Amino acid sequence: MNKVESVVSLTDTVLSDDLSQQSKRSASGALEQEESPEQVQQASIPRSVVICILIAVVFQMVATPRLLHRAGVTETDLFEDFLAKNIMPNLEHGWDRLNASVSMASMAYSANEEKRPGYNIAKRGAVAKYPIVMIPGYITSGLELWSGEPCGRKYFRQRLWGSLSGAHTFFTDLDCYLKHLELDPITGSDPPNIRVRASQGFEAADYFMSAYWVWAKLIENFADVGYDASTMTLMSYDWRLAFPILEERDGFLTKLRFAIEALHKSRGEKVVLLAHSMGSSLVLYFLAWVTREEHLGGGGGGADWVDKHVHSFVNLAGTLLGTSKSAPALLSGEIKDTVSLLGPIGTVTERYFGRKRRKDLANTWGSVWSMLPKGGNTIWGAGADLQQSTDQNTSVPMHFVPLQSTQPAPIVSFTDSRSASNTPSCTLQQNTSIEHNNPKNNTYLHASHLQNIIQKFSSKANRSIDEVIEFLEQWGNGYGSTLSAANLHSFKKKDQLTPDLWHDPTSTPLPYAPSLKIYCLYGVGIQTERAYFYKRNCGENGDLSGSNCDNTALNDPPFIIDASVNDPSRNIKKGILFADGDGSVPLLSTGYMCVDGWTRDTNGLNPAGVNITTREYKDKQEFQVDDPMRKGPESGDHVDILGNVHAMEDILKVVTGFEVETVTTHLESDILNITDRIRINLLGRSTVT
Prior knowledge:
Layout: H1 3-24, H2 37-57, H3 63-71, H4 76-111, H5 117-123, E1 132-135, E2 143-147, E3 159-161, H6 164-172, H7 174-181, E4 195-198, E5 207-208, E6 212-213, H8 216-224, E7 232-234, H9 243-250, H10 252-267, E8 271-276, H11 278-291, H12 305-309, E9 310-316, H13 326-332, H14 336-339, H15 343-353, H16 355-364, H17 366-370, H18 376-379, E10 412-414, E11 427-428, H19 434-437, H20 447-457, E12 462-463, H21 465-475, H22 484-488, E13 517-524, E14 526-536, E15 553-554, E16 559-561, E17 572-573, E18 576-581, H23 587-597, E19 611-618, H24 645-656, H25 671-688
Parallel strand pairs: 1-7, 1-8, 8-9, 9-13, 10-14, 11-15, 13-19
Antiparallel strand pairs: 2-3, 2-4, 5-6, 10-12, 14-16, 14-18, 17-18
Helix pairs in contact: 1-2, 1-3, 1-4, 2-4, 2-6, 3-15, 4-6, 5-8, 6-7, 13-16, 20-21, 23-25
């Protein structure tokens, strides 16, 4: 038996092991009753297939490298053979079974009415009242191909993102797949001859791949209290685009305005805006846009437009102050899930869909730039949400900067002891793909200038968020200031409020809307990426433990996360420092504006005194046989919060106006102490300076 055949034989074993481990972790005792083999098999179907699908679609090669590693496969040709012989047949063969299984699970959820908050609150008298406009978050809307290169024309009007055909293309023709998903780095819009657009309707984001529910549960619970397509709508959009390009290319902001006005007029009630994740950031941008005059780049709705048409804004797990993981995505194409793939696993993943390709793709997406941390060193540099270590003997470089320090807490720390003023000179290897990918040959930075920018950034051991963003703007993944996303976003406060600041709630006040209500709902209690340890990327030339990296050429990306850094006592794992959050967005981002930024009278960010209600949901994970891919009805996970029974009930109370007086601020985290520390830190620095 060769290695590939041994991988095939391991597939069912490994994936069934995954299911078994989840079953053992069940805290609810739901599996105490013995299940039949048919039940276990049925539960394992969606997990095994969806793992493969999610690998393809969200670029987090988890199960496949694990199988390869177990079988000893490390070569690219064997990897491709494995994909062709095992993964793709399993995807195609199991798809019908998967859909059948998901359909049965959905039917079971629909049939078991007592499980649904909508059914229960309707029994108590709740009925549909305020029209609902739903705005999805990052990556959750399907993307369809409308025109493309010859390799992709067979997928006309099929989903490149969010479907089996997209997963198939990812595995069988990665170059074609990426060519159609990337944007023009200079314009921030479509590359020549390619048009990819968001799917429309509830189907655009109710399920991901027809298997992984996103908005489906909320939609069904809304239906329980009387909502239908005439009283609610889902405004999907191309989540790759920077917000200004959404309006420029697709007219999305204009469409959103008219959808709100139409629902208000037809139903006679103001609208509830319900947004998730990056969708909340988009809503804030929209509120700034719609109230500004057209000659200032706005929508011309008038200063009182929000007060006239919007009843409330429900911000569900919103990326209000961005997310830390955007920084490494742009710096090196890495996140927690990719860094954890070490040894042969990491080698195979890197060869198939490596850091450089991930980084290059992310830098063309303006949305990733829009989710860079906002608030700068004042908020993120205070380190108020980080665990302070008192162990002076630790070998790990100190990452947390104590309060009232004159130096901000870094978001990037270089572990190379030579990454100081005496760092040896390094050069960046010639990137042979740049001219091929560059639509304008004269837009790429000169090699010597690029080298100076990189050298300067790595010459200091610790870099704050302000410094990281400044580097990203100068570097622009090699395009410098010509990179569209870098030009469309500003992270520095100005005397005048310009459109490039509308994405930042620490610079852009809420509209003057005295009757508006804002509800901030988000999960807490899950370790979430917060800061990173980096090293220079010398590749095969050596590593930072020896001298081979000195005076040599760096690879692209020039820096990579140093996964050898671990310190559990300080929440550092594989080169990543973790803090409280919902698993994707740090608590600092989801909570700061809601409990402090918009509630302080002195900063001018809430001129009308809009009422802000904040509700946190402590993560309680629970394995369920009928929903094995998710973390249970009380999960605080970033996506699972869309199905959290308590969050859904609170949302239902807001949109129906029924028992809404019970939806009051409830905090489970340390967010109030965190905001106090930020104020103390700011006062301390002011005193020092």
